[in-house]
Amino acid sequence: MPAIEKNMIKASDFGSDFIWGVATAAAQVEGAAEAYGKGLSIWDTFSKRQGKIKKGHLPTTACDFYHSYKADVELVKLLGFKVFRFSISWPRILPDGKGRVNKEGILFYHQLIDECLRQGIVPYVTLYHWDLPHALEEEGGWTAFSINNSFNHFVSVCAKEYGDKVKNWIVLNEPFGFTSLGYMLGVHAPGKTGLTNFFSAVHHTAIAQADGGRILRAEVKEANIGTSFSCSEIIPHTHSEADLLAAKRVDCLMNRLFIEPALGMGYPTAGWEVMERFSIQHSTWRHTERLTFDFDFIGIQNYFPLTIKYNAFIPVVQAWEVKAKNRKKPHTAMGWEINPDSFYNIIRQFATYPNIPQLMITENGAAYHDKLNNYQVHDQERIAYFQQYLAALLKAKREGLNIAGYMAWTLMDNFEWAEGYNARFGLVYTDFKTQQRTVKDSGLWFQDFLNH
Ligand code: BGC
User: Fold this and answer.
1) What is the CATH classification number for the domain harbouring 193?
2) What are phi and psi of 232, to 5 degrees?
3) What are the pLDDT digits (tens) for 318-350?
4) 4 in a structural domain
5) By percentage, how much of the chain surpasses pLDDT 70?
6) Which numbered atom of ligand 1 lies nearest the CA of 174?
7) In this structure, what DSSP letter does residue 40 have?
8) How confident is the model at residue 6 (pLDDT cuts 50, 70, 90)?
């Protein structure tokens, strides 16, 4: 197959039924974090702990999307996207995580969904994009056995409320992301650490993923149900056996931990003792059955590959990342390696699982140090990033992989978790003081690209 010239690709090369979307998440954009009956989320409380978020930024106002959603949906349309992926804030619907329903919260998402439909934009709704109700964290959060009942209740409320209007659902956003960063490394909310916390959070999350799918299937007619996974090609630093095995362990955690149980394969172990013990504990027939669900599509989210080296000093996983910067590789403002071939490779890796009806890229994008100048942001690097990644995606698609669509991360600069407002990923520039939006050159590039 001839190489694809990245400057020449057109959206129409992907076929007329290919889905083009742009994504956001409630806690990153909505603001109104302590208003209109919303309960606190773990990000509202975690961000107030000293030193947890860069420069002490808080998600309280974020992009004020709660008040500007109409204009923001208009931006989605203006940029040429047909799909808008957003998430529902659990504590806005259920301020205590369970029980009492917040009518204002219910109404807000009705209005948002109606606005999308009115503007001809198809909503893709994520049920959990990391903003757990703080009240549930007080009971142990994802480490508590009771979380599954609470989550199922939340899913059922949303499915019943919005199921007539919303057909496309994503149960969880990046389960490995929030269980590892939030319950093992402690750098994301709720800031817990250690293997015991991590593994119990993993198991309850894997149950939630499949239970959520089943509830949507039962409640929503003609639902298109997916869930999304973070994934990264794992590249061993050298061909030494120690590096190969270290890479295998990281791959087991980062790429396989949640998709394999969902596909009915049980937890992966990669011949690794820690994982074998965990898997044995949870591999009764009842467990395996409950962890399985026939998703209609699998969302994959890719930002970077990881180069991994054996390191005996790192507990348990004994693996260490050799950073892009230290290898003199191109990288974004987050230090994440820019490597479109690795995007292609990880799509292929996921496509080798049998029984995945469709793959969908539910997030991909890059942060740069954008500067607003005379109402313009010339983010040429971001355009180049998208051009290269989309060329890699087209290559995978032309080779016959069943990829249904692509969603760019993200509509506008927003609250980037522990990075606060310092990392800008948007196609639209957000002035966080005035809430003024400015379409960046990359947004204009998408507008043009999606027109051809
Ligand atoms: C998350 C987003 C986040 C993005 C960039 C993904 O892991 O789903 O919420 O903003 O990566 O870090």
Assistant:
1) 3.20.20.80
2) -145, 135
3) 999 999 999 999 999 999 999 999 999 999 999
4) no
5) 98
6) 8
7) P
8) low
Can you give the length of the chain in residues?
452
Does 20 count as an annotated binding residue? no
pLDDT band at 127 (very low <50, low <70, confident <90, very high): very high
Q: Which residues line ligand 1 (CB under 6 A)?
A: 25, 28, 173-174, 177, 230, 301, 363, 409, 416, 425
Flag whether 129 is marked binding.
yes
Determine which one of 115, 161, 260, 363 is catalytic: 363
The answer to whether residue 384 is domain-embedded is: yes
Domain count of the chain?
Answer: 1
Dihedral (C-alpha) 415, 417, 422, 425: value to the nearest 10 degrees?
A: -70
Give me the sheet containing 234-236, strands edge to edge: 234-236, 306-310, 319-321
Please, which residues have CB within 8 angstroms of residue 418's CB and are 6 or more apart in sequence? 52, 53, 54, 181, 187, 188
In a domain, 245, yes or no: yes
pLDDT at residue number 283: 78
What is the span of the domain harbouring residue 206?
11-449
Q: 79-95 pLDDT, tens per residue?
A: 999 999 999 999 999 99
3-state helix, strand and coil shares in percent for the chain, rounded to the nearest 5: 40, 15, 40
Residue 182 CB burial class (10 angstroms; 0-12, 13-18, ≥19): buried
Question: Which residue is catalytic, options 30, 137, 174, 260?
Answer: 174
pLDDT tens-digit readout, 285-323: 777 899 999 999 999 999 999 999 999 999 999 999 999
Of all atoms in ligand 1, which is nearest to the CA of residue 173? 8
Give the amino acid at 113. I
Nearest residue to 121 via CA among 78, 87, 88: 78
Catalytic, 174? Answer yes
28 marked as binding residue: yes
For residue 328, the CA-to-ligand 1 centroid distance in Å is 24
Greatest Cα pair distance, the chain, in angstroms, is: 62
Distance of CA 242 to the CA centre of its chain: 31
Has residue 126 been placed in a domain?
A: yes
Question: Is 416 assigned a ligand-binding role in the annotation?
Answer: yes
pLDDT per position as a tens digit, 24-68: 999 999 999 999 999 999 999 999 999 999 999 999 999 999 999
Q: How many A from CA of 1 to the centre of ligand 1?
A: 33
Q: 182 alpha carbon to ligand 1 midpoint, in Å?
A: 14
pLDDT-above-90 percentage for the chain: 96
CA distance 226 to 216: 10
Checking if the pLDDT of 2 tops 60, the result is no
Check if 34 is active-site: no
Q: 3-class DSSP state for residue 11?
A: helix
